[in-house]
Fold:
Amino acid sequence: MAKKNEALEGEDHYDMTSMIDVVFLLLVYFMFLPLQQESDLGITLPADAPPSKNLDLPSEHIVQILPNGNVLLNGAPMDNPYSRDMPSLASTLARLKVSADRTQTKTVVTIQADQYSPHQRSIDVLNACARAKIKSISFGG
Structure:
């Protein structure tokens, strides 16, 4: 047992106090460094910024084409899935366009076709938009 005590007495002991002090100093330095860098930036506060103009947003209508061929305009079902002329969709789009033209807003139609929907239904919707004289059409996902 005497040999173990001698081995313990012979080991070096390190004083960790100075290392802990250095770590705390580095921690404080790096905590305040970002605050100093951000204070140098020229930030325009909202009160100093001029008010933005009112943007005229278009009248957007979403046409969904389901896999079974049904067509929804803004969530409302339109026409028979076997109707190629789509008279109800064309007349509703025409009324919406007239209403938007009265308020001098642009009418935009976004077609959201399901990946399993018949491609012919997209063409039918495009033809209905053409009959309603809507020229701003996009495809969305």
Remarks:
- The longest strand covers residues 59-65.
- The chain is about 45% helix and 15% strand.
- The beta strands are 59-65, 71-73, 76-78, 107-113, 136-139.
